[in-house]
């Protein structure tokens, strides 16, 4: 299947070239390595999330739903890796369950998920385009004063297209949580993510489905009526269905082995799994060979 034909299944969504960069990217990416142009969509998304930096670690603040999501996404990742048989049986029921697992979190923001995976002893690298949010993540990590976390976490201000140059076929897992719905060109983005994975490694995705219930309940009511999520966080044309994610991953030699539907109950700030992907979903796919 020609990967460009996937755009026909996205409704109003059209795949565009993803210029994954931001002004003044620092750290490992040199000026000559990074594309000079950044799409308006990418710039808007990075700025929107950077504006939330001061409230990022407030568990009762504007990002409380993201904090609450850890209750289901951390076990989803943990159990997905256990099911692959790559975890030492002796470590399964311990807080060291992810010991020696090299994990990349793409779009880590201020580190809400990163720190929780590191507490399970994963060696995790978090990358993001926002220098503001990476600084938030580093500051919070220092405040934790936890030697285990400091040892397990590395943060970088770096686009995935640059990161893959040095980390091709390197990671046991790549985590893309609440990020794909903010990406302009999902094909280019997922390509680089999959290339970072070892053969046999897992990609974990949590995101929003492109459905009418999601638009009405999640975006219109959730953001603009109830203020459960900051206004302007999600845009209908950037959402994508699990079927289309699976089709894209198929072309990259990744076999989807699990898709779970989920829903956020704002009135009690709680997430739970449901038997429908009409709102949100979590997906695990396995890289079956070299790509």
From TrEMBL:
Protein known as: Ubiquinone biosynthesis O-methyltransferase, mitochondrial
Function field: O-methyltransferase required for two non-consecutive steps during ubiquinone biosynthesis. Catalyzes the 2 O-methylation of 3,4-dihydroxy-5-(all-trans-polyprenyl)benzoic acid into 4-hydroxy-3-methoxy-5-(all-trans-polyprenyl)benzoic acid. Also catalyzes the last step of ubiquinone biosynthesis by mediating methylation of 3-demethylubiquinone into ubiquinone. Also able to mediate the methylation of 3-demethylubiquinol into ubiquinol.
Pfam assignment, any one: Methyltransf_11
GO molecular function, one term: 3-demethylubiquinol 3-O-methyltransferase activity
Principal localisation: mitochondrion
CDD domains hit by this protein: AdoMet_MTases
Biological process annotations from GO: methylation
Membrane topology field: Peripheral membrane protein
Enzyme class: transferase
SUPFAM superfamilies: S-adenosyl-L-methionine-dependent methyltransferases (SSF53335)
